[in-house]
Design a protein that fits this description.
The protein has 255 residues and is α/β, with parallel strands linked by helices. It has 10 helices and 7 strands. A 7-stranded mixed beta sheet has the order 1-2-7-6-5-3-4, sandwiched between helices.
């Protein structure tokens, strides 16, 4: 699999199928909390199967932005307390961008921070939400509560992305085209030529590499990382006000 590093402690694995180890090795981990959404539960079951030999507990959070409410987060905290998830244990978030945004925030704040691994199951999540260490929940507006904290690993299984319906592929394409406009014009040309039939493994790897490079230079968005907000000033307003999917709102913002 392709391996992209952000700093010394966060890695992104991209390829077809699952890596030999979904979570990084640890001699201190005793259990793993798997957080997923109903729409991604089949993939979460596959992840759990790959984690044979580890004590895995699974919890379903609401689909979409419903995962990013204070009520949903509090529900997960209560569950983590009930299973006794400790400071040396790991949370794995499997699902779309809302799942990794929420799962990352929960991991960053549970016991003042435990390890988290992301398995994005949408194209938008794989190239955007899961990359760069931004976590967030919605309180009075989109992502107004959150922390900057990298996952230890992001696993991008391109086979999952290739099976997505066209509407989800187009939503992810908006964020990929944004990166193309910023740094890799050939990505835009590929979409012009092939539409949603682009080589996903090549495109996703390139888009993630661009974002990872920008994030590594400016993790907490004091300067250069602001480039990644192209299309988002209007896009976030449209998304939150009209209730349309993030990728479609970003496409409107780019236009």
């Amino acid at each position: 699999m392709e391996r992209i590093l952000i700093g010394d402690s966060s890695e992104i694995l991209i390829g077809r199928g699952w890596p030999s180890e979904i979570v990084p090795p640890s001699s201190h981990r005793t259990r793993l909390a798997l957080i997923t959404q109903a729409g991604a539960s089949a993939w979460a079951d596959e992840v759990a199967t790959c984690l044979a030999g580890i004590d895995v507990e699974m919890h379903i959070i609401p689909d979409g932005e419903g995962a990013k409410t204070l009520e949903a987060v509090a529900d997960v905290y209560e569950w983590l307390a009930s299973i006794g998830l400790g400071r040396t244990d790991t949370i794995v978030a499997v699902g779309g961008g809302a799942a990794t945004d929420s799962g990352g925030f929960i991991a960053a704040t549970w016991m003042r921070g435990v390890e988290v691994v992301y398995v994005p199951t949408t194209l938008l999540g794989a190239v955007d939400a899961a990359i760069g260490g931004k976590t967030g929940i919605n309180v009075g507006g989109k992502n107004l509560v959150g922390v900057f904290r990298h996952p230890s690993r992001v696993v991008v299984n391109v086979d999952i992305l290739a099976a997505l319906p066209d509407r989800l592929l187009s939503q992810g394409a908006a964020e990929i085209i944004k990166v193309g406009l910023l740094a890799e014009p050939w990505i835009v040309d590929d979409y012009r030529q092939h539409g949603l039939g682009v080589d996903l493994e090549r495109i996703v790897t390139a888009a993630i590499a661009v974002k990872a490079g920008i994030v590594e230079r400016d993790f907490t968005e004091q300067g250069a990382r602001g480039l990644l907000n192209l299309g988002h000033t209007i896009g976030h307003g449209v998304e939150f006000g009209a209730g349309i999917p993030h990728g479609e709102a970003v496409a409107i913002g780019l236009v």
